[in-house]
Amino acid sequence: MVKGGLIPVSRVKKAWNDTPIKWSPIPIGLGLALITFLQYRKIIEREADRDTSTSKAVVVGPWHVHVISELPLKTISRLWGTFNSITLPMWFRKPGFKLYSWIFGCNLEEMKDPDLTHYKNLSEFFYRELRDDVRPIDYEAALVSPSDGRVFHFGLVDGSRVEQIKGMSYSLDEFLGSQKASETAEIIKATHSANIVDEEEFAEVNGIGYTLDSLLGHDQQPTMEHKKQDSEGNVVPDEEADKKSMLKDSQEHLRLRPGNALFFCVIYLAPGDYHRFHSPTNWVAETRRHFSGELYSVSPWMVKQLQDLFVLNERVVLLGKWRHGFFSMVPVGATNVGSIVLNFDKELRTNCWDDRHKRGYGELLYSGVSRLLNGQPLRMGEEMGGFKLGSTVVLVFEAPENFKFLIEPGQRVKMGQPLGQIE
Length: 423
Known about the structure:
Catalyzes the formation of phosphatidylethanolamine (PtdEtn) from phosphatidylserine (PtdSer). Plays a central role in phospholipid metabolism and in the interorganelle trafficking of phosphatidylserine. By secondary structure, this protein is an alpha+beta fold. The chain has a domain at about 135-210 and about 255-420. Helices cover about 25% and strands about 25% of the residues. Strands 2, 5, 8, 10, 11, 12, 14, 15, 17 and 19 form a ten-stranded mixed beta sheet that branches. The N and C termini lie far apart (about 95 Å). Mean pLDDT is about 75; it is low at about 50-55, about 210-230 and about 245-250.
């Protein structure tokens, strides 16, 4: 201490400058303990906010998957989307987009507008259109590829489970949502996109004449109450038979037509692929469900590491019907995907800062588009929307048991190329 009990400022500065600073690495164990604590806190918060009416998937995978799950992937993706929208200087566009194309393998010769200076930013270049003649549609096929990409997986749905990879599956109910429409579902404003003659022709040509409710097995019919006679001959409720009936109904996740089965197909879009997706067949989309979810990478490596990846990620579930029964198409979001776009649904907003449906999903019914078809008619090859970067499209559909896929795992496919046929 000095006179007056105060230390001169000069001495404080000297001590600060002369004191050596020694940096020591944080022990690996301490770092892992911190990650474990953060993951535990996240699970506790999730359980505290759990919506009991909606089942939730939990991150399951090796330790590095849990590390990735702690990253602010949605925020990073939003910032990346904002960055992609920055207008680039004219002089940079041509060399910049050519460099990107060289790195990710984009075919610039297929572009509808080949002048790279017309694309103001990365977002417009990602969402580029192709010439009409470079993606011929095979109209003879029962099902064509909705997008460019790589076939990741396909096959039969096993009961209520969809195989993600061999030895790993996810719940179909959690992926598509509950069978019954939500009481809070909104109905899209009537636009009457086609006249009544076109709608009748579409329904007759494609054999479509029933609603999604009947497809999913929850028609508005009264529940049968079973009866029995007691020892005195009185007719009383048969509670045991009721329980068995309820159990049987709960196991019938989809009421398939006789001789039909449920199939699925997963197509992965890389950053260099054409990012728009098209209708894989003639069908009617009746319901749209938007699951906010997370934005994990959907690369083949991540698909093999993270169980329930497609259930965890943000996705837009389109439920409907085609001539063979139930049909659904699900664009799945991923890290750095700015948004998912539907041309016929301007109400859709994905990867938003203020997400109203964080704990469930928002639902929209397309019955207002066509009263006859009860939904949005979509023709094979018609452009439906797209991603603002690469991602994944999942098809889950009902078809006759003799439906045969014409693709191989890992195969590169182009939009319009046949995926399968009915033998």
